[in-house]
User: Fold this.
Amino acid sequence: MATRTRSPAKGTRPPKTSLAKADLLDVYRLMLLSRRIDDKEIQLKRQNKIFFQISGAGHEAVLVAAGKALRPAYDWFYPYYRDRALCLALGMTPTEMFLSAVGAAEDPNSGGRQMPSHWGHKALNIVSQSSPTGTQFLQAVGCAEAWLRLDAPVEDDLVYCSCGDGTTSEGEFWEALNSASNLKLPVLFLVEDNKYAISVPVEVQTAGGSVSKLVSNFPDLLVAEVDGCDPIASYEVMVRAAEWCRQRKGPALVHAHVTRPYSHSLSDDEIHYKPSRERDEEAKRDPLTSFPKRLVAEGVASEAELDAIKTQVDEEIQVAADMALASPQPKPETALLWVYSPDVDPTSEQFDTEDDPHFTGEPTTMVDLLNSCMKDEMVRDPRILVFGEDVADVSRDQYLKDVKGKGGVFKVTWGLQRQFGSDRVYNSPLAEANIVGRAIGLAVRGLKPVVEIQFFDYIWPAYHQLRNELATMRWRSSNAFAAPVVVRVTYGGYLKGGSVYHSQTGAVVFTSLPGLRVICPATALDANGLLRTAIRCDDPVLFLEHKHLYRQTYNKAPNPGPNFMIPFGKAKVVREGTHLTVIAYGAVVQRSLVAAKELEEQGVSVEVIDLRSLSPVDWEAIERSVRKTNKVIVAYEDSLSWGYGAEIAARVADQCFPWLDAPVKRVASTDTFVGYAPDLEDFILPQVADLAQAMRELHAF
Assistant:
């Protein structure tokens, strides 16, 4: 059961603090600095000199305390937008904050790419923050998990992760607490409870109105509640929580009661939902009012000393704001930088050893060649971790000698745990966001997660992490942070009985995301070479494995050796032809080949291109073929309307129009879901007969 502590009741004298006078004065200075930056930004926003403002007012005391208790550039930090005072305490400067506010090119948080108060600072280990609430939790867990997986872990670092009271309603908050407690990870969660999520009060958000009471039964979780407007009490609690984590006793959660004297942001006006009497009561607890009075009353500081601090702070802020306002904006063309790694190009010749395979053994299946690729790569790179649902041979190590092992529902990861150990190959909870979120945190620490989502149909809980976190990490941080995660996922139909929830495709949902590579092999050999490239490249990759193709005899190949790679963005002409071109990928490639052979008997020469890489796409190969045949069919397993092939068809029509002798034709699934009954499935998915008919019609045009 969790260990629960409370700070002294409000109004009582806190325990003797270890903070000296200089520390207490610095606490006041940092709190005041944070508030004055907020005030200056509000002024600049009203003057239309900045474009957004959200404050940390009322939260300063506990945040400065956290900054004093933790170690910048040693511990890791996943803050949220109210954490200005924490960042100042860790070493971020007012100038750096104003650079963010004006969107300057030199902004260390994001280079002008994100809103102000989206903190990120490589030198201080403040990991780039995004706007979605709660996505930071699982990444913080993964970041803390690195100490279990690194060869030479730092002895007592911890990961700080904060949020507001409203964000504790997000499911990923509970997933993170579960994993952090289950693995006894050194994550210090700080819940800054100002009683409102914009306009929604805490009793509407949280059963019983207290999140710390709700979490009190998590094992090995230290739970502490504190008056977050009291910096001394907050410091003592944060030190105790940090020590709990540093001693590897488990995670800690500090529930800090703070205020919100300003509206949620300048886009909000709290007088519409918060009565004046409530705001007046909150004002009495404002740490910028109560703490300096206390310093004077207890003889720690004189009014003159506090006035000197105010003068210094005001001067510092004016200079910082002036510097930021005079700083240049990013050059427009720099928007194209850092979507992908500037250092490792998986489309380059460095990753092209396709023409020099070193075959050994008999031809084998896609499952086997994917497995052998992961084995080779895990031998080569000790940073590689493999985890997901059911991917281990067995979760209970003591049974390894007694059982054959699971190794994934399709056996793709079978034997990896036996060979590389349970620290590198392990099962995850049945929670897709948990898998991807933790992988991002691990990747930020320099590890190389190769994770599995068991079925594409169930990837959607992880979409938030994939879209808003994984794909954007490098770009939103101006290349300060990267998360080169490989996400393997089985997808597709053509398996009798797959039905609605085991036949989904939908690649277009992911190819539309800048920053994410999307790969889809159609043969065992291509799967081996493309997965090796995915693992060795420095970008996040969604690796689609069509389960219908896992054990087909027609796509078998011998093992091509441990250095066999196929670059991304390199399509393959799998059948030469002169009369028309079929552009396909995945399971539709083989069907296109069968249909093309049928058309050959009727005197029609069909060229078939296997894209292999969906993002990036080999437009040069497509254009070469179109110039040769002058007619095009785009064949794909997504629904006909709004599917992946629609973009291919549109771009062919746009770029190759002068060479087209007929409209671009598409063959795809019906605009429905996939049915269970075999006759329904056959009707819905594109079949050889559908492709052959389309070829005849196009040839006759």
Remarks:
- The longest strand covers residues 632-639.
- The CA atoms of residues 459 and 525 lie 26 Å apart.
- The two ends are 74 Å apart (CA to CA).
- The chain has 24 helices and 22 strands.
